[in-house]
## 1
Amino acid sequence: MRHPPRARRTTRHLSWTTAIAVVLAFAPAAPLSGESPVEGANQATAPVHIELTGSRPADDAAVEGPVERVLLTFSGPVQADLSQVMVVGPDDWTVPASRAAHPDAEASHQLVVRFQAPLPDGDYQVQWRTTAPDGHVVSGDLAFQVTDAPPGAERPAEMDALEEPEEEAAVLGMVPPGTGQRWLHLLATVLLLGIVAFRYGTLGPLGSDGVFETVRERAGAGLQKLGWVGLVLLVITLGTRLHHQLGELAGGDGLAWEFLGHLLFQTAWGAGWWTHLVVVVLVGVGLILLGRPGAGGRAWSTLIGAAVLLPLIPTLQGHAMGSELQVVTAPAMYLHVAAVGTWLGGLLMLILVGLPAVRKLGGGSGALPPLARMVNAFSRVALPAVVVLVASGGVTSFIQGGGLSGLLGSTWGRTLLLKLAVVAVAFFLGFYNWRKVRPSLPGNPDAGTLRIPATVEAMLGIVVLLITAALVATPLP
Ligand code: HEM
């Protein structure tokens, strides 16, 4: 196999895929960055999860009429088009009111609903649900009483009877909703990034003597099969993630189809969903081309395009986009996910595809047996990836966690600490494999020596992905 022509093709295709990635990354920032924080709101330097910081009427207040509107103030910007505010009056009647809106263009951290007529005397409950710029849905309620309403403030005849609220879907134990499908999506991401990283990072530099031509051929078929597995997971999660997000917006009461257009076209989450769709198409086309004789170059260029876009999806659909320091957290999260795919995905490919491909091979033309050369090549890619992984994860934890108190005193922080504990064990095993097992391979070229510790390392990595999926579905401190 001749390297320079392939390298040139790759560079050309990388440039257009990178261009798409950059456009997709910055397109959603425009509408979101318009939601500037407002003076007086409880805006800490470190980003905080959106919460209600005040209301008019205030919670538990007895207000002398007339009351013609409810104003809610949040700790940060909220998306009015993805918000619902319902006011329930005496005898469980819903009060006819306008849609939730920002009181003016500058007040992106406030929502107001206006009533058709001043409220009559009685007890009222406000049930609100809104969406932060990072796509997280938050909800709550408050109550107030109206006394001395002005003459003529009566319950309008067209008030609707309030339907019995459906039981909230029970959350299994401590696991936040949406964790399972995010995990499946992360698994697909890691598989597909791993395929490209292993093909170009590990197999690519191994030279083109007869032995490694055979390894590449054997590995190619395995990589293609795993690619189909990744594609199926991507297709499933494309549907389930949209379904889940619409369900969240509806507050467990069916699906909020009325928000579909806004969600898909005006939020960072929606940009992530479109990126997901584009990746599905690219991976599908790439895998089909891979099965056609003579189309290998185009197939791999298409798969590289998908790999460039893949880390954008969790970046656009996670906490990184809700941060005030988005300019740091978004690129850090992109690098974090790309590094996860290179290390964990590459390791999975080494175990599932690389080790079987070198089994029963002869000594090859190099000084080292093929297994040792392949593991050395993998280590040269995995080590820098782990450095990037730790640095980008550290930066993100520091910014999003808001310091040590945020880490220890919140569910998000404790989930992150659990993740770090498992990461520490996985990295310890990785270190053992690198320092002890790898140097022993030239004298003992039996793939079994490496398979067990490497498989445990990869399994721990998959557990870390599961904890991470729960972490991202948990509100920031
Ligand atoms: C020193 C080690 C690490 C630190 C400090 C760290 C920290 C973080 C933080 C703070 C986030 C953002 C979570 C959020 O937005 O709520 C994150 C996301 C992520 N981490 Fe790590 N991490 C580390 C290692 C790892 C490892 C070893 C893996 C893989 C096995 C991993 C996989 C991921 C993934 C896939 C995401 C993106 C999840 C998503 O947005 O869907 N991290 N990490």
## 2
Amino acid sequence: MKHVMRWVAPLLLALPLGIACSSTDPENDPAEPTDDESRLRNEIFEENASGKADNADCSGVVLPDQSGFNKRVAITFDDGPHLDNTPRVLDVLAAHHATATFFINGKGVRTAQHRDLLKRMHEAGHIIGNHSQNHANLKTVSAATLKAEIEGTHQILLDVGVKPAFFRFPYGSSSCATAETVRSYGYAVTGWHIDSADWCFAASRGGVGYCDPATFQHVPNSYRSDIAGFVLSQARAKGGGVLLFHDVHAYTVGVLDSILTKLENDGFRFVGLDDVDTFPRLNGKKPASSPFIGSACEDHDDCNFTAVNEAGFCQTYEGGGFCSISCNGTCPDKAGMAPTFCVSLDGNSGQCVAKSSAANGYCADLPGTTAKPMSRFIGTSSAPASTADVCVP
Ligand SMILES: [Zn+2]
């Protein structure tokens, strides 16, 4: 209420003078969370932390990538844009040479200034995602409302030149049906690993940086007045991951520089949500397992290995590719992988291919190949003549 009162006077003055509302209308920090919002946030935190969540791609908070972050952190902000606080967030990010992702609510994009702010974010290299139009609990709305909630913000982003790829459910609250609907628009559902709980630190006791247990129970007592410590402890436990803030709180702007500095001093680096190495599954890729002869590949980078002193390369063909090395009669095998065989695909030189075996689903793991009998490429070796069923295009 205090915030509202503060702005009544300037508005009363401004309106009779005919000053355009849209350019002088200041934005308030959001109201304190309702009991319902607190309850939802507590539930979602438990879902994320305890493994209670489903593993069927229905959760709005559990990410498909859960490890292997290699001390890389993707910073994300929800609920903006905010004309006062978001630009200050952008300044802090620029000082740290960090790009972030902003999940916006369409209802907050009310003026040309808001649209200009979105364009500035986009031009600075930040990712802008969809956080729904009105920030409702989408698990409980009708199918028609769900579509309107997605499409409203989707259109706003298209109008400012952004093709959004990431969606975050308000409160992380999703069901299998809502997640499926969101994906049908081409979005990746994006939860988080590290919850700053900045909304709680910002809300309790007038924003002095104390998170009240009655508002949010999941901050250990030692961190009740230490948001940076709370963030760092989670980042260390996870080895990195997706970090959640809200750029609508002046409190968050005030502590952001110190949190980012502490993370950097601890060896963390900042990446975008679209960093495929850090978040392969979120970006629709299989995580890189250590490649070997017969691993599926798209380019030579996917075959970054050496075997019997030969460098791996990606043999591409229409519809796919597999990793290979050149050979002269024989090829090395590796436990857990399909056995290999030296053949010539060009009639001149030898290269290793995978035999058709259970380990590669009898060639099903290598799209575009089928099992075909081929003769060994003997080359200058003394290997005996032989044939085998191998996976080749
Ligand atoms: Zn939100």
## 3
Amino acid sequence: MANIAVIGTGYVGSVSGACLADFGNHVTCVDNNAEKIEALKKGIIPIYEPGLDTLLKRNTEAGRLKFSTDLPGAVKANEVVFIAVGTPPAEDGSADLRYVETVARSIGQAMEKYTVVVDKSTVPVGTGRKVAAWIGEELAARKLEIPFAVVSNPEFLREGSAIQDFTHPDRVVIGCEHEEARRIMKEVYRALYLNETPYIETSLESAEMIKYASNAFLAVKITFINEIANLCEKIGANVQDVAKAMGRDGRIGGKFLHPGPGFGGSCFPKDIRALARIGRDHGEAQRLAETAIEANERQKLRMIDKIETVMGPSLRGKTIAILGLAFKPNTDDMRESPAIAICRGLIEKGAALRLYDPAAMKEASWRLEEVKPRCHFAPDEYDAAKGSDALVLLTEWNQFRNLDFGRIRSLLKENFFFDFRNIYKREAVEAAGFYYTGIGT
Ligand SMILES: NC(=O)c1ccc[n+]([C@@H]2O[C@H](COP(=O)([O-])OP(=O)(O)OC[C@H]3O[C@@H](n4cnc5c(N)ncnc54)[C@H](O)[C@@H]3O)[C@@H](O)[C@H]2O)c1
């Protein structure tokens, strides 16, 4: 079993650290956010991720998992150092590597013995070699020649089911060119390796590309069904039937064929933009990716137009209840959530909003800061509906799948029901006295 430091204790770092400890490794999770580390030491999880609290408790109590702000100390004490810091989008769509560079340089400044540096952050092709160069520069400045290896080990977990995804992955990708590092990575993932999880060894570049190509493909798939849904509306077809039958084809598969208000989150939007940027930089335009980015922006605006068309001519003076703000259920993450653009757009058109999300209210209160005076942050879905003219369902949380229609109908002033995740059957909603609008149905 390996001694591991995980640098960056966000959505990916905290889950990776806890799961790697659960595999039997000794893990120190490091972050430069002292507040976060203090909370974690007390067993308080700064994010919403089902099951993470239990896993942290179990492994902390077993002495396999520690938290620290001391990056140099963690580098010195461990043989494997994961980089799991954020790579947010820069102005031009490329990935901002400043956090990765800072951590790589800090590793070079602290390293005392052979170390395997594992890049788990999603980074553009070529970053693994840059990480090696940054560490090399810092070692040279210290006039030291300590051997080290850089490994690319992209992460495919989904927020909301992160622990299951990390512990039961479809594959583990290891981009690495050093035999010894490969052996150590097998130790790190021993629990999975023994379980016959597909273990794919590639070059650094291929591993980096696998992550971008996978995320861009899924984003394109969502965009494809969104566009088909929009067309279905015009020609009188039902996208639910179309998607179901398409998904039955083993070559296509039913996942990611659910139309909605556009993809969001911390990964798809930024990763597809970064891929498009890499394509342009190398003279190989990624046209499908470019088009999906544009179409996705249009899709969010389309939701605003749909609401205005149905409730119009104008939204001025209307109050709209929004159910669901996180970019998907089971997370509090609102990064690039379609809800942000939709809420802002509705307010620009003169509406006031009553908002509710089961986990993302704290996030929403600062992400919607500039439109806050026109927002009421409701304690539950029924309070959001109270006195509103319409109800708009944006995130398919389970607790929204079984709304008390009678109660909602009596709380709403008018009867507009926008189901932008197609979780209800039109007939059932109409039978309860609502005017139903879905997507592509
Ligand atoms: N969130 C996901 O679902 C997901 C899935 C797969 C891959 N990824 C990728 O993983 C990476 C991390 O994503 P995330 O969502 O966990 O980000 P995050 O913003 O939640 O977490 C990043 C953490 O790194 C810390 N940090 C930044 N600089 C640091 C430094 N110098 N020293 C120590 N800590 C530092 C921050 O304080 C923060 O806690 C990104 O590249 C992302 O694209 C994310």
## 4
Amino acid sequence: MTTKGTQKKVQKVSEVKKLKKGDSLPTIKAIENNVLKCIIGQDEAVRRIITAIYRSIYLKSIKSNILVIGRSGTGKTETLKQIARNLKIPYTVEDATKYTKEGYYGNDVTDMIENLLFAANFDLEKASHGMIIIDKIDKKAGHNQGDVVGVAVLNSLLKIIEGCEFGMIDGSTFDTSNLIIVFCGAFSGIERIKRRETKAKVIGFNTPTHIEPSTEILGCTKSDLVQYGLPEEFVGRIDTIVEMKALSKDDLIKILSSSKLSIFKKYQNELKKLGITITYPRKLFERIAEKAMKTSLGARELSNVVNYIFEEILYNVLSHPGEYQKCKLDIGIVDDNMMYKLS
Ligand SMILES: Nc1ncnc2c1ncn2[C@@H]1O[C@H](COP(=O)(O)OP(=O)(O)OP(=O)(O)O)[C@@H](O)[C@H]1O
Ligand SMILES: [Mg+2]
């Protein structure tokens, strides 16, 4: 007889099972909770991406090709990586700008599959349930003059989206129908298309006051994407469009203080391992966030600012092993990394 307690335990164990035929996945809620420990300020987007991915895994008859739109450093790639890690599936991040139509100089879609196989340690079955993240897809839009074959590349991607059998070098075939394909892009300037459309529809349109302009979700539609220059037949295959909002200063502060990915916390932990405890002023994270907000790199810039802060400290600490136990940061360290005291 099983008690309630053991039943609960059994359920817990099954939550971390691998994605293999017959095995159960972690619950959708468990994945969401884990991802939200890392990704800050994108709760709705995270939920929608996970749902679309679960839909493609569980509801085989409904394809889920996902497009994630968002500025640089808002968490597009990181969210997908975290989901793949939680699902324990192999993934590869591919830069669409490196791809050309077959026969041209550059990579073609078979390279994507090879990279995925590599990530799966050449386990074909595992790779066929993996995730391909195709980044910078917006740079393949027709209006980007630099890439004359952009549209042709998108069309050759349709092959794997549709689900086909790829002939491998060793004579085996690779079925793409179970792959999870996610496109990402910044689509800078798409707000202009959106604004034109909104103006045409609503006379005297005003931005609602409850939405901060910097963190606004545009509600991009397929027709906006076509106007942006993506081919219609490509856009037609996208089932879920998810937008990541631009991160606010408060989001950046929260990333520093509470995200599992916080670069500041990483330094803090590493120095702790060297026997050094850091103390810092209450306003430090705000100052770091303010500095990062001056760029358009979003949370990505936090790494640059924090790396700068710890550069001199690290040099000093590593030059004098075992000599210090405490490191006191001054608020001015954000702009001058000599402003600290080791003791
Ligand atoms: N919402 C977020 N919450 C916590 N950390 C974040 C978030 N967004 C970005 N980061 C941090 O910034 C790094 C870069 O983010 P990511 O690679 O996801 O950016 P991106 O949106 O894909 O940008 P790009 O368009 O430049 O590729 C991540 O590794 C993570 O450490
Ligand atoms: Mg990215």
